[in-house]
Amino acid sequence: MDSQDKGASPIKGFLTYFYGNFVVLLLGFIQTPLLTRILATDEYGKTGMFETAVTVIYIFAVLGLDQAYIRYYYEKDIDRVVLLKRCLLPALCIVTVLSLVYIMISESANDFLFGATGRDVVALVVIYTFISVLERFFFLDVRMQQNGVLYSNINIIEKILSILTIIAAFFMLGNDYRVGLYALAVPWGCTTAFLIIRFLVQHRSYRPDGQAFIPSYRELLSYGVPFITVLLMEWALSSCDRIALRSFTDFDELGIYDAGMKIVILLITFKNTFIAYWSPVAMERFESGKDEENKVFFRRAYDTVVFLCVTGAAFLILARKLIVLLLGASYRSAESVIPFLTLMPIYAIMFEITVQSIKYTKNGRYLNIASIAALAANIAGNMLLVPVFGGTGAAMTTGVSYIIYFIMGTVFSERCIKIGYRYGKTALYTILLIAYCTEASFVNDTLTDTLCGIILIAVVMIMDRKVVKEGIVLCRKYLRKVKKDFIL
After folding, report:
1. 193-212 burial, b for 16+ CB within 10 Å, e for fewer?
2. Same domain, 217 and 275
3. Long-range contacts of range 166-172, CB-CB < 8 Å, 24 or more positions apart?
4. Angle at 353 between CA 350 and CA 354, to 5 degrees
5. Do residues 63 and 221 touch, judged by C-beta distance below 8 A?
6. CA neighbor of 269 nearest in space, from 307, 228, 301, 316
């Protein structure tokens, strides 16, 4: 990223990442209905369990060294090639061992996860886990270079490959959950291969300026290992709902819940894009040492993202009835699951802004405390609500747990580096969002639903009129630039 880009508005920097994921979102409206119409609800529910199984292996394998890579990437005179190798090697060793353990217990593990097993399923879990580790580090290199265009293009290609894989796998397997598994593994494998080749070519003659700084394995692990607990808690936070549904209900309910989660892909796409953009930007800002200037930047970014998150959630809840029509008749009950699920990605995004102070000051224990508090609330909520409300109860629990996660992380983050975010407005938005989600989940009245959504959006527009004005100015500048380039 050049100096001009670094001084740009947080919105402008984010858009270079988001344009590709917006295309991915549009392609997702092809992919998700394609899968839900190909697979019955019980078969579709099994694909979510596949991601759950792979994620827990991945968490223990990475050892938090991806976070260490982010933390040390902008250190003065760092040898980035050696840094990546030192972060990647232990992860590959661990994933090998964990994969062997999984293979030994695969029959019983797969029986619980999928209600079926097979050599191809075992192979897919193992291969996809290795791909997850490799992709994580080599894609991080793209993110840390703040190359938003390449990041976006890779995501677009991956989604196109996923759609093509679904079609090909369906003709071979029919109504079989393995269609979803192949749709995850094959595209990611292709893009990861490209990322590895790109890294090797790009860094073939790389040399750091001055005497190289190379963190020791001990230093990297001492920073990264505490993140295992954090990542495990986050995994549990996002997986307890599926486990509870698997335990208290059936694959049909799980499939409907996963379909609802896929509809929330708009905000999840926004979340993933923002995290990809924000982590390197935040670390670079902290390294610059310009405290007062940084605080203004962080507050401005927070206000912008809160506005986008809340309005995005409101629009998605308003449009959910139309979106559900795309999934097919058997998935219509996902309509009541979507509202509270929208809280998960938006509070995760807000958490990512405020929590960077904890990561920079290396106070990982605060993240552990926040994760434990949110997980405790999640387990209790799932035990109480899932047997009564099914997928809607799981969605309620997930949404509220992420609010708790955000609150706890933010309180600790301000202890590390006080930025001075404006939380009064966030508290009001939270109350309004919970009220709207409750109405949308349990009151089956389209007029009331629409009025509540419009009122929420109007309140946000009025209270964040400064952000709205900035967005309008930015759009006008962009349109003038496009017009000028077109004329020329």
Report:
1. eebeeebeeeeeeeebeeee
2. no
3. 166/31, 166/34, 166/35, 166/38, 167/34, 170/38
4. 90
5. yes
6. 316
Distances (CA, A) of 412 to 7, 226, 363: 28, 16, 9
> Domain tally for the chain?
2
Q: What is the pLDDT of residues 158-171, one digit of tens each?
A: 889 988 998 888 88
Give the DSSP letter of residue 269.
H
- pLDDT, tens digit, 9 for 90 and up, residues 426-479: 999 999 999 999 998 888 788 898 999 999 999 999 998 888 888 788 777 767
C-alpha span between 179 and 173 (Å, rounded): 7
What gap in Å lies between CA 391 and CA 421, rounded to an integer? Answer: 34
Question: Which residue, of 208, 224, 240, is where some domain finishes?
Answer: 224
Separation between Cα atoms, residue 126 and residue 96, nearest integer Å: 9
- 47 touches 181 (CB < 8 A): yes
pLDDT above 90: percentage of residues in the chain: 10
- Which H or E element spans position 309? helix 291-324
- The total of other beta-carbon atoms located within 10 Å of residue 33's CB is 18
Helices (H), 115-211: 119-144, 148-173, 178-202
What's the rounded Cα separation, in Å, for the pair 328 and 421? 43
Q: Is residue 239 part of a domain?
A: no
Three-state DSSP state, 39:
coil
- Say yes or no: 220 and 255 in one domain: no
| Site of tokens 């899932």 | 386
CA distance 394 to 404: 16
**263 and 141 in one domain?**
no
Distance CA 249, CA 389 (A): 10
Range of 210's domain? 10-224
Tell me: pLDDT of 333 over 70: no
DSSP H helices, 325-390, are 338-341, 343-354, 356-360, 364-389
Sign of the torsion formed by the C-alpha atoms of 150, 276, 34 and 118: positive
Check if the beta carbon of residue 388 is closer than 8 Å to that of residue 310.
no
